[in-house]
Amino acid sequence: MLHDPNRIYIFDTTLRDGEQVPGSQLTTPEKIIIAEQLQSLGVDIIEAGFPISSPGDFQSVVELSKAIREPIICALTRANKGDIDSAVAALKHAARPRIHTGIGSSDMHIQYKFNSTREKILERAVEAVKYAKQFVEDIEFYAEDAGRADNVYLAQMIEAVIAAGATVVNIPDTNGYCLPETYGAKIRFLKENVKNIDQAVISVHCHNDLGLATANSIAGLQNGAGQIECTINGIGERAGNTSLEEVVMILNTHKGLGYHDKININTKKLYPLSGMVSRMMRMPVQANKAIVGRNAFAHSSGIHQDGVLKHRETYEIMNPEDVGIDQSEIILTARSGRHALKHHLERLGYSMERIDLDQTYQRFLTLADEKKEIKDDDLLQLMGEDIESSIKNGVKINSLQVTCGDQTQPQATVKLSLKGEEHEATAVGNGPVSATIHAIESILGQTNEIKEFNIHSIHGGSDDISKVDMRVIHDDKSYMGYGFSTDIVRASANAYLDAVNKFYELVNQPG
Ligand SMILES: CC(=O)SCCNC(=O)CCNC(=O)[C@H](O)C(C)(C)COP(=O)(O)OP(=O)(O)OC[C@H]1O[C@@H](n2cnc3c(N)ncnc32)[C@H](O)[C@@H]1OP(=O)(O)O
Ligand SMILES: CC(C)C(=O)C(=O)O
Ligand SMILES: [Mg+2]
C-alpha cells in the first residue's frame, strides 16, 4: 500500500477538479490521452472522475481504469452509499483503485448545505469510510472546506475517519481562503493533535481564489503533508487549483527544502502536457503563467536581455529545457537594447563588421515604437534597407527591366554598381527570376548555386511586400540572403545580392 514517509505523492486531479471548469468537459478518449501523458509524467495518483455524476463520467473512469496501469486511479464520491457503489463499479478493472469520499467540515457547510450538526456529519463521514472500505483498501477522505473549519472539530473528524480505515486524509482549502501561515498551522495542528495521524498520509488540496493555492500547498508540505493535489496549468473550479508544474518546479528548484528527491516527475514533459491540456480543454494558458506561460522564459527589456545573453542565470532561476521548452526567448521591443539587437542580427547571419550598430539601433527604435514587437521579418526588412545603404565595396542593383509572358522568352536587363562603377548586362532564363540572376552573374563573372529559394508575403494580399529568402552556395560555403520588394523579381534579385555581398565584400576589399 502506498505510504512511504520518504515520498511526496503527486495526486493529479486535472480530469476531475480540472474538468469542473465550464466548457472544459472531455470525452473518454480525450481523458485517456491526457491520462497516458500524466502516467508518463510520473504522477502517483490520477483522479479520473466522479462516477455517479453522469453515465459519461462513469464510463471514463471504467476505461481509464483499464488503460492506465501504473498510477493509482481514484474516483470521487459524496459520503453516501449510492456514490460509493457507483465508484466501486467504475473502478472494477483498476490495478490500483482508490475511493475518495468525504463531506463538508466547516460550520458554514454543516449548517447551510446539510442543515445538520457537527456530530451527525462526523457520523456520516465515518459511515462512508467504513462502507467504502468493504470494497477498496485505499480510501482517501476529504474534509470539504477544511480551510474554514474549526481545527479542534477537524481533528476529531480526521481521527475518526482514520480509525474507520482512511489511508489518506485530504484537508482541502476548498474556497482558497487560507493564508500560507494559517494553512500550514492547520496541518501542523492535525499532525500534533490527531492520535493516529501517522497511519494516514495527509493530503493538501488548495484552491486559488486569492492566488495562494501553490503557496498554501507548500506550507502544508512543510508542516507534515505527504501528498499534493494539483492540476496541469492550475485549472479547476473557479480560480482553479494548485498548479502541478508550479509545485514540482518549486520542489526541484529549492533543493534545500529536501523534497526534490521525494517526487518522481519527468519535468521535461511539463510544457508539452500543458499545451495538450490547454488545447483539449479549451483553456488558454495566460502568457505570464509561471513555468508554462508563453512569457515564462521570454525576456523583453534591454537590461534583462543583456544580462541573460551574458549569463542566463542572471534572470532565470530555472533552465527552460528542464520543463521541456527549447530555449529562452529574447523578444525585441522598444525596451530592448543594442546587445539584444546584435544577438538577433547575428542569429540571422549578419556580420556585425558590416553594420553600424548605433545607426541601425536608432532605426530599430523608430520601428519598435510603432510595432511593439519586432519579429525576424521586420528585422530582415529593416536590414535589407540598411544593407543597401551601407554597401561600400559590394554589389548594388541600380535598375532592373524584365520582359516575360507566355509568348516570349523571359529576359532581364540589369544595371549594377560594382566598386563605384556601373555595369549593364542582359540575359535570358526559363523565368524572370532566372533571367535576372543570369544577368547579374554575367556582370560578376561567376555562377553560384542557389540551394533554397522561398517567397513569402509579409502581411498577406496581392499588393503586399514580398520577402524572399535564398541560400546561395559559394566555395562550398552557404550564405543566406534576404530581399524585400513589392515586386517579387526585384525581391529575388535583392535576396541574391544580399547573399553575394556577404562573401563579395569580404574577398574584394580595396587594397
Ligand atoms: C468541492 C468539490 O469540488 S466537490 C465536487 C464537485 N463536483 C460536482 O459537483 C460534479 C458532479 N456533481 C453532479 O453530477 C451532481 O451534483 C450530483 C450527481 C453529485 C448530485 O446531483 P443531485 O442529486 O441532483 O444534487 P445536487 O447536485 O443538486 O445537490 C447536491 C446534494 O448532495 C449533497 N451533498 C453535497 N456534498 C455532499 C457530500 N460530500 N456528502 C454527502 N452529500 C453531499 C447536498 O447536500 C445536496 O443534497 P440534498 O439534495 O439533500 O440537498
Ligand atoms: C472534493 C474536494 C476534495 C474538493 O475538490 C475540494 O474541497 O476543493
Ligand atoms: Mg477542489
Features:
511 residues, alpha/beta, TIM Barrel, Double Stranded RNA Binding Domain, 3 domains, 8-stranded parallel β-barrel, 3-stranded antiparallel sheet, 16 strands, binds 3-methyl-2-oxobutanoic acid, binds magnesium ion
Describe this structure in words.
- With 511 residues, this protein is an alpha/beta fold.
- The protein has three domains: 272 residues, Alpha-Beta Barrel (TIM Barrel); 91 residues, no CATH class; 116 residues, Alpha-isopropylmalate synthase LeuA, regulatory domain (Double Stranded RNA Binding Domain, 2-Layer Sandwich).
- It is 39% helix and 20% strand.
- The chain has 16 helices and 16 strands.
- The strands form four sheets. It has an eight-stranded parallel β-barrel with strand order 1-2-3-4-5-6-7-8, surrounded by seven helices.
- A hairpin with an 8-residue loop joins strand 14 and strand 15.
- Helix 1 runs antiparallel to helix 10 and helix 11 crosses helix 12.
- The longest helix is centred in the last third of the chain and has 20 residues.
- The protein is elongated.
- It binds acetyl coenzyme *A, 3-methyl-2-oxobutanoic acid and magnesium ion.
- The site of 3-methyl-2-oxobutanoic acid (KIV) has 9 residues, from strand 5 and strand 6.
- It catalyses: 3-methyl-2-oxobutanoate + acetyl-CoA + H2O = (2S)-2-isopropylmalate + CoA + H(+).
- Belongs to the alpha-IPM synthase/homocitrate synthase family. LeuA type 1 subfamily.
- Pathway: Amino-acid biosynthesis; L-leucine biosynthesis; L-leucine from 3-methyl-2-oxobutanoate: step 1/4.
